Amino acid sequence: MTKQNWMGIVVGILFASSVNGQVGRLEWRNSIELPMMQNGKPSIGVAGPIAGLSNGYLLIGGGANFPDLPPWEGGAKEIQRELFVYSKKGKTVHLLARDTLAEAVAYAASLCLPNGLCVIGGETQEGKTNACHLINFDKDTGKITALRYPDLPSPLSNMGAVCIENKIFIVGGEFQDAVSDQILQLDLNNLAQGWIQVGTLPYAASHLQLLADKSHNLFVVGGRKANKDTASTLYQTVLKSSDGGKHWEKLTEIPFKAAAAVACILPDDGLWLLSADRGTTFHRVETLIFEAKRASDQQEAKQLIEVKNQLQRNHPGFGREIWRYDLSYEKWKKTGELPSNAPVTTTAVVWDDMIVLPSGEVKAGVRSPKILLATFLK
């Protein structure tokens, strides 16, 4: 082998080592749990909570759960109103205050803005909502305040949202009876203009993640689309837009389907996928529901529903794997595990060098009261 070839190999190894040395890691610490419920019972957790920062404090509230019975036993889903405020000192997080939202809401988009936590759309006990609010915590009073922002053009839930240079972008989501492919924008410097549509996705999707990098590129991660008579379509696609959602390109696919995922972009130029529903059990449950509707008699339908219920009872959870997508080299790599079963249908909050995963769904119809905490190290 020539001297030049050897030098090329050595330089390549050193370059790879340098690149690998820039990859961060998550150091998981002891989790905390949501406080006792108002009835004095331990919290069972919520899916689709409000989660984000206001004036340096962490807000977690709202969300939906099944407080009496699980759904396979006929339990009714309830939307919650309680909101909890947390303070941080060093690596410790403490409950500081608790309050109630003006209206119970779940499955909204939560967005950290410089002047508060923006809560967009979601579901109330009456159905989907188009309401938008800016929520803030006042330390002097120990209460939250809410400022009304322009309503969405239509009620919408389970969408992706991000803010770039005082412009909020929303992609996808669920209307009352359909799934959206729209990209909406709200200019915070021109609230009177309201929401405008600035583009469309290549396909309709809800339960997706919308993220932005330091160069203001938009990324859509995973998602799903409910279908009328067949099981939902689940996506493992990553889309990128460099022009504010007008045009999209496909990047390297996620190694698996990923709906209701939890993800964030961290300072190591990595897109971190912390959890996702890969849809195996979800698809089987949906298929059994459709088969029961088409059953020829009530006995057959009852048997199919019981099989569906058993699947939900024995749901294996969503695993613990953490995956990282290198935004520079467009490659996925498994990079660790969560300390407990992965929560989906929640929002990752980046709080300085801390990553917070608040509550969420850990099995079909089962929530976790845990608030998972990690420190990002680079």
UniProtKB/TrEMBL annotation:
Gene3D superfamilies: Kelch-type beta propeller
InterPro entries noted in UniProt: Kelch-typ_b-propeller, Kelch_repeat-containing, NANM
Highest taxon in the source lineage: Bacteria
PANTHER family linked: OS04G0487100 PROTEIN, PTHR46773
Protein name as it appears in the record: Galactose oxidase
Species annotation: Sphingobacterium ginsenosidimutans
Origin organism lineage: Bacteria, Pseudomonadati, Bacteroidota, Sphingobacteriia, Sphingobacteriales
